[in-house]
Amino acid sequence: MKTIFDPAAREELTRRIGSVKEDSHPQWGKMNVYQMLKHNTYWNGWILGTEDHAYKQAFIGKIFGKIALKRMIKDDSPFDKNIPTSDQFKVKEENGDLESERIQWISLINNYGDFSNPKFVHDFFGKMTKDQIGVLVYKHTDHHLRQFGA
Q: Which helix (H) or strand (E) holds 149?
């Protein structure tokens, strides 16, 4: 299974991030290209712990989180289209510096080579192993790149 902790997978993803263009349009979902880039820089910063994030699992996640996580990362199949986004990761602004977001996202992807965030707790899935995080991050990144045809 592909994981963000594999250097070849990170290289593949950074190449694909570089192929996203300003005029790229979503094949599904409500985000525009800027919102997708910004969503991913924030989301990856959250996973990596680059800022002072609060980590807390939602109550509904305590009931269904582990079951959903196992289903989502059990094999190499991509995430379903139109899976919901937690409110904290929804980007409201519609325009911004695409190139800056792209550079930041690529930098964050490369930071997984030295991943260490023992305090990380996913807001739905809860506490995760490093292997689970690696697969989830790869699939999340792939999901959004496929969303924009990359």
A: none
The residue to which tokens 């899935």 are assigned: 125
Nearest one of 114, 105, 115 to 42, comparing CA atoms: 105
3-state secondary structure of 126: strand
98-111 and 7-19 helices, crossing angle to 10° = 180
DSSP 140: H
Nearest residue to 145 via CA among 9, 48, 5: 9
User: For the chain, first and last CA: distance in Å?
Assistant: 20
Q: Is the Cβ–Cβ distance between 30 and 89 less than 8 Å? A: no
Q: State the DSSP string of 29-92.
A: SS--HHHHHHHHHHHHHHHHT-S-------HHHHHHHHHHHHHHHSSSPPPPTT----GGG---
Three-state DSSP state, 122: strand
Tens of pLDDT, residues 24-64:
999 999 999 999 999 999 999 999 999 888 899 999 999 99
Residues in the chain with pLDDT values less than 50 = none
